[in-house]
Amino acid sequence: MAYNKKAHLRDNIEAIRLMFRLERERRAATPEEQAVLAAYSGFGGIKAVLSPFGKLTDILRWTQSDRELFPLVSELHGVLREGATDEREYKRLVDSVKASTFTAFYTPSEIIGALASSLSEHGVSPHRFLDPSSGTGNFLSAFQPHFYNATAVPEATAYEKDLLTGRILRQLQPGTDVRVQGFEELPPQDNGRFDVAASNIPFGDIRVFDPLMDDGTARRFALGSLHNYFFVKGLDAVREGGIVAFITSQGVMNSAMGTPVRQYLMERARLLSAIRLPNNLFTDYAGTEVGSDLIVLQKDTVSEREYTGLEKAFVEVSTQEDGTTQNEYFERTAAIVHTRGHVGTDPYGKPARVFLHDGGMDAIAADLKWMLDKNLSENLDLDLYLRFSPVRELRELAEVRAESLQERIAQVRALSMPEQQRVATETPEAVVEEPPIVRSEPENPVTQEPLMSLYDLFGFTQEERQAFSTGRKPKRKKKQDTPQLSLFDIVEPLSGQSVPGKGDAIAASPAEKPARTAQPEPAAAPQAPSEEELRERERRRAEEEAARQERMKPRPFTGERLEHYRNGSLVNMDGQIGYLSGMDKGIPVFHPLELPARQQQRAASYIELRDTYHRLYNDEAEHRQENGELRAGLNGLYDGFVRQFGNLNDKKNIDLFRMDADNREILALERYADGKAVKADIFDHPVSYNVNEITHTDDVHEALAASLNKYGEADMEYMESLTDKPQAQLLDELRGRVFYNPLAKRFEIADRFIAGNVVAKAEYIGEYLQTHPDDAESRVSLEALRKAAPVPIPFEELDFNFGERWIPAAVYSRYASWLFDTDVSVRYNASADEYNIRASELSPRIYNQYAVRSETRLFNGVALMRHAIHNTTPNITKTVTDKDGKDIKVRDPEATQLANSKIDEIREGFSDWLMEQSPEFKKKLEDMYNRKFNCFVRPKFDGSHQTFPDLDLKGLGIKDLYPSQKDCIWMLKMNGGGIADHEVGGGKTLIMCVAAYEMKRLGLAHKPLITGLKANIHEIAQTFRTAYPHAKILYPGKEDFTPDRRVEIFNQMKNNDWDAIILSHEQFGMIPQSPEIQRDILQQELDSVEENLEVLHQLGSEVTNAQLKGAEKRKMNLEVKLKELTHEIETRKDDVADFKRMGIDHIFVDESHRFKNLMFTTRHDRVAGLGNSEGSQRALNMLFAIRTIQQRTGKDLGATFLSGTTISNSLTELYLLFKYLRPNELERQGIRSFDAWAAVFARKSIDYEFSVTNEIVQKERFRYFIKVPELASFYSEITDFRTAEDIGIDRPKKNEILHNIAPTPDQQEFIAKLMEFAKTGNATVLGRPPLTEKEEKAKMLIATDYARKMSLDMRLIDPLKYDDDRDNKATHCADMIAQYYNRYAEHKGTQFVFSDLGTYKPDQWNPYSEIKRKLVEDHGIPEDQIRFIQEAKTEKKRKAMIEAMNEGRIRVLFGSTEMLGTGVNAQKRCVAIHHLDAPWRPSDLQQRDGRGIRKGNEVAKLYADNKVDVIIYAVEKSLDSYKFNLLHNKQLFITQLKQNRMGSRTIDEGSMDEKGGMNYSEYVAILSGNTDLLDKARLEKKIAGLEGERKAFQRSKGDSRIRLETLLANQASNSDIIARARQDMADFESRVQYDKDGKKLNPLKIDGVTGSDPKVIAARLHEIEDKERTHGQPVPIGSLYGFEIVVKTDTTVKEGLDFCENRFFVRGTGKLLYNYNNGRLAADPQTACRNFINAFDSIPRLIEKYTRDNADIEKEIPVLKQVVDETWKKEDELKQLKAELATLDRKILLSLKSVDTQEANTEGVTEIRPEPQAPSVAQPAPSMPDSPAVPAASPEPYIHRMPDYMVHAAERKPPVLPAMPKTISIKELMSAGKDKVVIGGIPQPEAGTEKPQDKPKWRMKL
Q: Has residue 527 got a pLDDT over 70?
């Protein structure tokens, strides 16, 4: 039976409607109603409920197949709205429906019945049953007949998280404990309670929040996914011997990531059965095919048994020969219910085995039960199940002997069947008991008060617990006379009881101990006591014991509840020492402790010291004022404690202090220097705020800095007090540095005033001066701002993207209305970053011209415009038939390409439309842009005046800092942070150290923190100590940052006033971040995801199920993270100081590019090169820390990023920099997300190429960046960028050498295999297993990686198959190294060799060791002079290796970019750098070259012409040279942007990246030896430039043509009007009559008036004026001299009302209308009547006006005609370039075909014929827009001969290098006009030159 969506939806609606009615009526369901409720099956597979709903027109956005469900979904919403109490509940119900579409797949009752029956038949009749994901209770219904109810009433508990389903379940199962909540809400007391837990559990990588599970690696891992969590939690819930039987997805057993969880399950349970169910199990119930498994476990933590073979197999997964990933269990068993199977794909498109069953549900259930019966008979331990049963009779039965399992099952049945009638007479309390054996608890046992033991409260380690529980202290001095006992020997007390047993004896006082422990009396006693004395002694002892027990009882705490008290805090109440619990409740509980007198006194002193410390810290932090009284008290208490008990950190004190929850913070009140305890700074001065403020200075600049720190402004009075100088003198000395800001009414420093948005500032001050013209200081300020303002960018030079958020939505509305020829409304929702587009009607352009039709959908113009404005691509699918005849949906490449072409047309049309608008409109848009983006000015920071007190230049060995360093430090001091983007070797370390100290000294920062790479952090700390010998620095080493000492370090940070804290990146990541800050940031991300999800729901048919699931998954995971943070905030008990409380207020981040992987939200989920939008935890922690500082200051920045590679690979990294440092400025620009930023500055490219299966695939990436100058300005405003040349570093120059190497025979053979792999995807041709499910989507990345390995050395691919070759890269490199070694032997010149592939590994072959072997064996270089950086395992060894390199004892050093590219200052003798491979990022290449090309290279400077040779090894027909050139070009763009000197407003980044490798066509072209790609790129660049020029010409020409046509039309119209007016004038003059005085007579005739009385005529005219309505048409009312008199009604709308006005005209014979007084009548009758005769006087003026207009037109027409007739002069040049490009494309195409079809023959001739292609498989290449046509095949055969080095490969000899290689500059050759760079392959001759004789030839026939 096929899945019927309509029927299921109808059943669901009726069930929901009935449920609401039953709830309203508060009654149980009848049997008939139970059947209606039971038909509810959830909404799994009914995606239509996700479609937009609200009004009838929403149906247009539904898929065609779902539209038939629209009425039912409408009815569903009506039922939900009627049943909901309010709008909020309605929304919850709708969300419930939508969420269930992903998870609600109900299990057929036959399957559950088979499971329940099989367990029951094997003796498992549950008394307490749990269904953790119940749905509508199918599992409950199936198991209820099998419940054990002979002697007790059974208990059933069901969890259902879905709101609707849970409420229906309550109606279906009225006797069941139904809990409408998630399984994670299972209370701790229910753990270990249930006999059986059975369900069909949910599946998904969705995090679960459960604090009780966050212990143990496997349990914590299980929280990351629903399915794993349910299994672990299910085992917790069942008691020992209990059964867990879950149906779940195949991912539980097949996932390699789930191995730790499966291992954990097998450690705690027996595997009873695992059966794979058929994929069509849920087809009839949910309309979906999905693989699922039944897994049955029996909890067993008491028996110490070995794993069975199948249990071991259950844990393991492996990739099989068919490419699928399978659990080893199924490879060893046949436990798969199926009748047939094949290899297909899973729901995620990965290879998977698909099993189907053709027998129907009953047959599936029968097969399942047969397998399950077999497994239970073999594996079930029924005695274990019975032994721990809550039913006494069943426990007793386990003690009765049984010979076999069948006999035991019979005993269970016999016990159950005869006594069923006892249920009604026996109470469950009388029969049901907990088993006498202690039940196995989960990993989080639950005890009564107190909820935690003393060990937990006091932070004891496990070793200490074990030692203390035995009553022995580890490694203590033997002191038997008067043992000093400490309290941490106390074992865990019970609520309301004293410590029993041994604890009593330990806690007793020495005087009591003999009596308490009943030790024998001494032998020398004079006489035994009498019986009466003994009785009296015993009575007193009993009274004392009773009083002691009463005194030791826990009781409410009545003392002062201080802010720092928490659970476990030691307190002194009424002279008694104890600890607190229940702090989260109303009244805390005081638990007394029995202490010896000495310990009592020690504890009381400690408590008083601790409380005083907290009072002092909190008081000063709150009031920011020193509290001398409390500080004196704290010092007195501390000194007194030390005198009496010793230092706080003495071991005898630590033992006591560790009992207190606050102990670590108090222990940090001491720090040790040279082995001596030193008081923390808080004893001397406040540490919660800065007290270091200067009181006097003669330097006005320093006074200015102090003023900025204290007041945030240039406070002149304060500066006067500091300098003792009057304000006039101050202003004079600070002229040009301080300006008056009249708006703020204060003086501001130039670096701030003439900075930022100067355009807005100038406008505001200009308006101010209009009302205050005498303010001279403000006028000076205004002039300074105007001079500094950027030059406005004219409209013609602006680049516009369709969808930029700053452009008003009304502009988009106008464009859309023009484009679609109908009214279109475009509105922008800023909070959701979403445009909504609505058309008033579907015009033909929307429905036809801009529409794309797929098989089932119509994407009309509005839908495509929505994608265009968001720069996204529609997901268009089609249905195809797979090899099994099954219909599947795949992406429709042709329809998608057509849609993208129309989207591009819409986007590009917007810019063209803008160019055609009026000058006023353009000017307005230009002004808006310049105000928004082109308004920033970077201050010219000049730090030359700084003197840097306390800086030890002599110790550093330098005379002074670089000017660039001073400027950068000044910028950081003024801005409060920024970016120090200095090239390698520019002294960033010293900038960081000096800036941190200066900020601290001037009070600009209180506690600066420096964080850097682990490899560099020691050098940073050493530099700081050298620069400032007396500075107080906290630099914890690796040994100091162990888990035990970490909290102590954090408290040291908090309690001391450090000049700098220096941590590695890893150590910084361990600092706890403020949970409140984390919660706020994650809440913002969650809000963004929820808004995107709402938008996806609104889009309806345009959204795929996968997109919705992805958004829902991220939403749920963020919700769980927020729950975890909320729980952490509410239950925070530890004493760890988080980042917010440490007082750190500035962070210096060295090598900041390591934190670029920051989370962001984007719609562009299919765009390459964006990285992981989820981000890394490291980057997220950095964001939390910086946001903490920014929230405290209310400003941007708050941190300094230092790196020579802030932009390491792509300009998209700029957004993340701005997100870190400039959130407020981004908000001002309206940029609230990555998509909004990309809409302004980036342009997405969509390329089409053939995939490995010969299908057209789409590849998207942000390749082009526009508005680059403004982007550069935004970056440079907070950045100090300096190249080595800018800094003036005395360092050698780089001399690049491209060393070409011909491929070896093995490489030639492997190149052919690589091309075959790239074409077919068959990985076995490479000698490796087939691609796995994860590798399938990364074929080209794998191909690229293999090509890189092949180029370096074939043995990287297979060290056993391939041997050394005398002509490989290793040999060439060894020869080159040896030449440099010998050439600079006298000066001990050193060399660096870089390779990120094949790095050194001591236990296997690698290129490092191979080159070293060649150098030693072939060239005689001593082995100890060749080293690998990987050999330096410690920092000490690393430093020694660098030192040996500088001394020349090590001459050659190998390493990777990661280990050798940073933090290695071994440049002293470097003469050469060798690149064996090309890194992925330009920044990596910079870092590599910077090892030798840096200051301090003495040998290169003195003996190598101040140059370092950089040798790039490139194997021909490999990717080497191509990658190096890409890096070179990309670095060029990045450098230009950083320098803010972009010569272009648009740049192209290229198309090769680390994540995706290369595209197929380029890859095959390069490997085939075709190196015309660079020529092609150069041609395309020229063509693009010329086409842009032609486009501008054509646009101008088009404007002129339109203007000419308009003028010609106007001229003709004017001439016609002139002719008609002249005719009317002639007629009038021939008819007019005059009186004797020469006055024109007025024989006016008005219809309806007889006679010529002016009063009567005027009255009639006024009557017409008031009443006539002509609706805009002239209506005749009379005549004059044969001309008609007409009236016309004009209607206008004012304030919503219609106003009508009649006007009068004379109509000529040419239909022209003439009027006098604008057609309005005068009140005077005579004047009113002469209105018409006077109208004829306007005819001469009219003729004159139009004649004059025609004269002006006559002057303009010839110029316009000349422009229109002009042809573009470069048309021939463009045609020639396009012809060359077409020829080149043809050439590349032929080479690609040769790759597919070449066959070797004895003559070296390859005949290529087109391969036959099946129409259903191969698709023709689509024609790309604006792409040149490929020329037709020539009738002449193309001859192409195999190269000599391939034909005679065996005869080649190794290279001979008698002299140094010739220097080649890649940069110069790239920029040369005609010279061609040879990058692998065969040099191609220039056009017009004769071909060399030795050029290889191929012959190719088509």
A: no
